[in-house]
Amino acid sequence: MKRKGFTLVEFLIVIAIIGTLTALMTLSSTNATASAEAAKVVSALLQLRRRLLCITGITLT
């Protein structure tokens, strides 16, 4: 007997797998966004430090 499609159980398993992968990708994306934001803050602070050192004329040894 030939089957023409998915059974309900197979369909539900596929939906569960897709849901799990989506959740994992969302968490990964959130972590990457937070990491990128932290890098932007560090970069901005380093630029501010350089500008303040230029303005005040202080040299670091």
Write the layout of secondary structure elements.
Elements: H1 8-56
From the alpha carbons, calculate the radius of gyration and give it in angstroms. Answer: 26 Å
Q: How confident is the prediction overall: mean pLDDT?
A: 89
Largest β sheet strand count, sense and barrel closure: none
Strand-residue fraction?
under 5%
Q: Span from first to last CA? A: 83 Å
SSE succession: H
Helical amount: over 70%
Number of strands: 0
Question: What's the overall geometry?
Answer: rod-shaped
**Segments where pLDDT lies below 50 for 5+ residues?**
none
Q: What are the defining features of this structure?
A:
61 residues, mainly alpha, rod-shaped
Sum this structure up briefly.
The protein is mostly helical and 61 residues long.
Task: Walk me through the structure.
With 61 residues, the chain is mainly α. The protein contains 1 helix and no strands. The longest helix has 49 residues, at 8-56. The radius of gyration is 26 Å and the shape is rod-shaped.
